[in-house]
Amino acid sequence: MMYADKTVSCVGICQSPMLSIEAEMNALNEGQILQVTTDKPDLVEMVRTWAGERGHTLEEEHVTSGVTTIILRKGRVAPVEAK
Residues 58, 36, 51, 83: is their CA dihedral positive or negative? Predict the structure, then answer.
């Protein structure tokens, strides 16, 4: 399993999981790793779609005892301002 720079756990009750995932990903730098764990298959689908739309890479995905762990690498984000 890869080392994650940040983790989001959405096992059991999880309010606004995509908002939490997006906020944590926004706090990372390009190339850093976000680990998401969830027991909800529909959230797994949402995360896959969301990551693809935003250029993040799904590095790993595995299921243990009904909990899916998704490892995402932050992709390049369009620059907001010139450095």
Answer: negative
- Give per-residue pLDDT as tens, 14-68: 889 999 999 999 999 999 999 999 999 999 999 999 999 999 999 999 999 999 9
**Neighbour tally for 79: CB within 10 Å:** 7
- Token pair, residue 38, equals 């969830």
CA distances from 81 to 31, 45, 78 (A): 19, 32, 9
Q: CA 69 to CA 61: how far, in whole Å?
A: 6
